[in-house]
What we know:
about 240 residues, alpha/beta, Rossmann fold, 8-stranded mixed β-sheet
Amino acid sequence: MTNAVRTHQTAFGVIEERGSEAILADAATAFMLPLICVRRGDRAAEPGCGTGVLSIYMALAGAAHVTGTDTDPATIAGARQNAAINRAPNVEFIEGSLLEPVAGPLDLVVANLPHRPAPQPFNPRYYGGPDGTDLVRALSAQVTSKLAPGGRLVFYLNSIANPRRVLATLAERFDVTTLGERRRDFTREEFDTLTPGLFAHLEAQRDRGEAEFWRDENELYFTGRVYCQNSLEMSTC
């Protein structure tokens, strides 16, 4: 697969990202970057790190140490190369599922995990379970024991991935705020190309109140949101 190069202009310099075109950071990652508040000295982590862009950003923004995880050894190797290219020595990338291999306490966890709902598993870069929430909810459960007092989880979630379920789960233990929102246009054909029956599955999810998307002047769209969750005892993002 052909390697590609992408650059990300940030308040802390340009991040150069290299990797196969299929795994390079998408528009959601770019949308997240200016919304992430890193406090100098933060102990940070990025579960599901992919090429490592968010991890590298946190390091450049002042985190004392950042750990990125991914289940794919080749992806981890590529993220390490990107850290070296961007001169981010305080970043490590290790193989493992979400926060399982990461020792706490952590001050900041940032994630853009696969969360596309679908009637059956497909490309693991996108698939997040039948309603899209499997990985996000698993991460939220892990965060409870990993975050230091005052720690934050910042994550991206599309409105087609049962936001009511995710937010209801988080509200039991956390204060959740929305840091930003973006519109994402899509077509039935685009989704059905990913896996057969995906759009019909989304329609059924919407009818049950488990997905949110709309039509505006004959254009289908959903929204992507960046959330920040804090412990109820310390609610400042």
